Amino acid sequence: MTWKAEVDGGRCMASGMCAGIAPDLFALDEEHARPRHEEVPEEERVLDAADSCPALAITIRDGTTTVGPRP
């Protein structure tokens, strides 16, 4: 099973937290982070990456339901 990961380039401040937590799933480019693939595994570290983003720029979705970041 997989989720979809999105990074809002307008909010991302390239802190690198997501790439530090899950370097195989998120990459840090010069100005923004990005998911390495649109689909990501349903794993706790994916949610941890979304939760740790200081700009709350990462959204994780299961279909139409937002599962990350967690409240």
Automatic annotation (TrEMBL):
Organism superkingdom: Bacteria
* Molecular functions (GO terms): 3 iron, 4 sulfur cluster binding; electron transfer activity; iron ion binding
Keyword match Phosphoprotein: no
The cofactors it requires, by name, are:
[3Fe-4S] cluster
Q: Which keywords are on file for this protein? A: 3Fe-4S, Electron transport, Iron, Iron-sulfur, Metal-binding, Transport
Role this protein plays: Ferredoxins are iron-sulfur proteins that transfer electrons in a wide variety of metabolic reactions.
Q: What is this protein called?
A: Ferredoxin
Q: What is the lineage of its organism?
A: Bacteria, Bacillati, Actinomycetota, Actinomycetes, Kitasatosporales
